[in-house]
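Re-running 4-diphosphocytidyl-2-C-methyl-D-erythritol kinase to confirm reproducibility after the cluster update. Everything else is unchanged from the original entry.
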Amino acid sequence: MITVRVPAKVNVQLGVGGLRADGFHDLANVFFAVALGDEVTASAGEGVTLTCSGPDAAVVPLDDSNLAARAARLLAAHHGIADPGVHLHIDKAIPVAGGMAGGSADGAAALVACDALWQLDTPHETLLELAAELGSDVPFALVGGVALGRGRGEILEPLPVEGTFHWVFAVADGGLSTPAVFRECDRLREEAGTGSGDTDVATPDPDPALLAALAEGDAVALAAALANDLQPAAVSLRPSLAATLRAGTEAGALGALVSGSGPTCAFLAKDADAAAAVARALRASGTCRTAHATYGPVPGAAAV
Ligand code: C5P
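Result of re-run:
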């Protein structure tokens, strides 16, 4: 039996380029791994079966659409294993469909867990390629830390980072569909008359001020540089997020943004005590279902 712990992510910068012919958008995506995470346990089984525990277990799909099951099958196929046997249990803490790459995290964790259970010793580079096949955010969950994702987010370059940053995540009722949020981003751009295709929208670049803030461990400077091009789209689809963002800011957060495609909202705090206070204020505000204080960066998927 192998248990793998895997982090959630927040995008401290999510620069979204134009819509490409393949249906994806080119990104300048600065991923940041946080301690709020899932655990995936692989044990011997017949076929690929899934169970899930945790507060949101009831809304996690347990069929072959789950990225953990797809990861197990993809790894088996890569090694020519015709009849893979594994039971995967997901202990879920990452909000479901929340913009924190929880499904992607479980896919990455399942790759690592099955690789160990089946004693395959797959090279890290190969695991990264399989991860990119599973989804744009899966490779980062293997790598962790802080990294720049180019292309659709799967081409990763680790970034230097100093110290620990303290975060609060406000969890919304219900999720948002990532493709729907990207479509809304395109629609808002068309409405503004700027065009949404990759010939109209410049390919985004990482913000030098944001990279410097990470390298220097400067939370105030990072808070000022937080940027998410999907935020207007997420707020357009879920207007109540504006009140959540305001509540965390009024409670003393240094900075606030929607996490990825949302609807989870992320708040950067000065230190662990400030994060705990912001989380308490958000829980009391009535603008979210719950709020978690956590920290990062932390490493990617690894056996415990
Ligand atoms: O790669 P993944 O399966 O996570 O992507 C889900 C959806 O999100 C894609 O089908 C696409 O609609 C959207 N997406 C995008 N551009 C990206 C990543 C995802 O448009 N860079």
